[in-house]
Amino acid sequence: MNSTDLKPEAAYDLQRCQTQLGALMEEVEEEAEVRLERWRPWLSRTSYGPSAENLAAYLSLRCRDIQALQEDLTTWGVSSLGHCEPYVRPNLAAAQAALGALSGDQRPRPERELFTDLGSRLGRHTQDLLGDGATPGIMVTLPSEAAQDPDLLLDLLEAGMTAARINLAHDDEAAWRAMLHHLHAACLQTGKSCRVLMDLAGPKVRTGEPRWPAKKNGGRLKVGHVLALGAREMDLPGDRPGVSCTLPEAIRQVGTGQAVWFDDGKLGAVVEGRQGETLLLRVTHAPAKGARLKAGKGINFPDTPLSLPALTDKDRADLAFAAANADMVGYSFVQTVGDAEQLLGRLADLGAPPTLSVLLKIETRLAVQNLADLMVRVAGERPCGVMIARGDLAVELGFARLSEIQEEVLWLAEAAHLPVVWATQVLEGLVKKGEARRAEYTDAAGGVRAECIMLNKGPYVVDAVQELVSITGRMRPHFHKKRASFRALSVARPPEQ
Question: Containing domain of residue 259, as a range?
């Protein structure tokens, strides 16, 4: 077929589609080069260069809304670009060649090897991070009991765990060593392999021990109650419920009218006032029966741009142990390229092996905005992956936006050829209580689009691993990442000129 075989209206539409696609390709190339110019100094690991180039092209493509062009391409039987994440430039060139063939304007089609090479890079980077097992892998947060109970590690491995997470915010070096010892013994006994993630505590603001005045609120907080949040326990008033926090400097940065959330959004409040080093909060969100605050629960300040170091003194100390014993280091609350460079510099100072991977935990609005830069800065130096930490992220962005943002993170990571860990409250009811709700099964099934799914600790976690193996085994043949309609992404900003 060529354009002379088409009716005039169809020939005009075909030519218009070709012109639009050609203009789009020129814009993508120009904008991608601007990004790459800024990224090139970061690419000391030259093998990551093609992936950075692909991500730059993808971001340039996703800065604009091309839904109308996608529909036109579909009507001509041409790729709609809806699954171009792994190979943006070849996909655009192939669509252009296909339109040319319809109009009689023969253009060379990109070699299949281009698609094959770029399409295989995610798999290679996943193997670097998670090993060569089937995806999605299953990561389990080890409880403190894992230091005393070697059978627990054996049961988890036999159930299907492929990666173990040791949270360095809890326990101590002796306990971490015991967990590793039991894990290595279980691997030898079962013949299975298991990667180890050591997760830095980061500047996570957590509750201290709550104080409840006698007969006040029955130990539960409900909407309308007032709660004192103090920088120190001694600052708390004695006439109302109160709790201190682990990072007093965070309290000093919060202003009146700003939101405060506790325990992954289970309890929400707004700042009504301040008394010295203590905030007075009015509860705005709580279960009907009220919520109990416990020590060690996370506190989020989504309205407050906190100025806190991503790498704390504790993290710097813990990194020495992680660099010598882990396969992956989880970077909590990383937000900027400067944060990433702090970690990379510390690992270099420690002489960490080049195979030690970094898992970027995306937990804040700023981390989402800077995701592309974070991925390139770290992956340009050592193996890298992305964790969607949906608990903190939901509180920071709002629960209504979480579904949208987690999709965008999946897309950007696929364009960067980096593996994703789908985390927080997966099958939480089953893990904690032995029974999951229907929505939790749907959520777990959605995790099959990631390269790894993380389960939290709980008394029924072995059962949850077995159930997750069953779910992913059934869902895996149905999914390979996603298909999408390309309106402009909120996180794909134009490059800096």
Answer: 217-300
